[in-house]
Design brief:
The complex is a heterodimer of chains A (about 110) and B (about 110). Chain A has about 110 residues and is mostly beta strands. Chain A has no helices and 11 strands. Chain A is globular and about 40 Å long. In chain B, about 0% of the residues lie in helices and about 45% in strands. In chain B, the strands form 2 sheets. A 5-stranded mixed sheet of chain B has the order 1-9-8-3-4, with no helix packed on it. Chain B has a 4-stranded antiparallel sheet with strand order 2-7-6-5, with no helix packed on it. The mean pLDDT of chain B is about 90. Classes of the chains: A mainly beta (about 110), B mainly beta (about 110). At the A-B interface, strand 4, strand 5, strand 9 and strand 10 of A face strand 3 and strand 4 of B.
């Protein structure tokens, strides 16, 4: 079974803090993704990575950065947290580049910025 | 990606089969049908996907009509743990690096 593990289920931080969200997958997947999920807005893609050290902006990258130094690990960084970044953050991974394989998700991190 | 239409909610008795329909009348030839579900406060869980043939795995079966304009996800023996929001997504297979777009989905309530 594919396993995508996010480091925290719940996190509370203060505005202005630098926040790190970690994600690890154990299936040697090439692609990794960071989404946020908000009521009424569905899933929105922040960044994705198709290889080590490679990254592409998604639909809402502002205020975020990412790091992929190893194939199995994809980190999301909130450079200076703000209250509008309070959300559920979801990491996903998938295999290959040009195929039909699905994305597999972690359990999410519910982040609150006070 | 093609638009999908699903009922807002469905009920199912525990132990019975749950049949969740999805309409995707504008699907194109290279688009796959994917099903995910999301249990409250958890991440989405992949269930099954297919192109035109029916598919079955340990979780569910996917029946796609011959014209591919609709499909049905079947949970053969629903349990209380199958209560979740179920999403039908249609997208081109060769888009590994693009976002999944979840619609409103169907809220399935399984009761004893």
């Amino acid at each position: 079974d594919v396993k995508v593990t996010q480091s925290s289920r719940y996190l509370v931080k203060r505005t202005g803090e630098k926040v790190f969200l970690e994600c690890v997958q154990d299936m040697d997947h090439e692609n990794m993704f960071w989404y946020r999920q908000d009521p009424g807005l569905g899933l929105r893609l922040i960044y994705f990575s198709y290889d080590v050290k490679m990254k592409e902006k998604g639909d809402i990258p502002e205020g975020y950065s990412v790091s992929r130094e190893k194939k199995e690990r994809f980190s999301l960084i909130l450079e200076s947290a703000s209250t509008n970044q309070t959300s559920m953050y979801l990491c996903a991974s998938s295999v290959g580049q040009w195929n039909n394989q699905p994305q597999h998700f972690g359990d999410g991190t519910r982040l609150s910025i006070l | 990606d093609a638009k999908t239409t699903q009922p807002t909610s469905m009920d199912c008795a525990e132990g019975r089969a749950a049949n969740l329909p999805c309409n995707h009348s504008t699907i194109s030839g290279n688009e796959y049908v994917y099903w995910y579900r999301q249990i409250h406060s958890q991440g989405p869980q992949y269930i099954i996907h297919g192109l035109k043939n029916n598919e079955t795995n340990e979780m569910a079966s996917l029946i796609i009509t011959e014209d591919r304009k609709s499909s049905t996800l079947i949970l053969p023996h629903a349990t209380l743990r199958d209560t979740a929001v179920y999403y039908c997504i249609v997208r081109v297979g060769r888009q590994a690096g693009t976002a999944l777009i979840f619609g409103k989905g169907t809220t399935l309530s399984v009761s004893s």
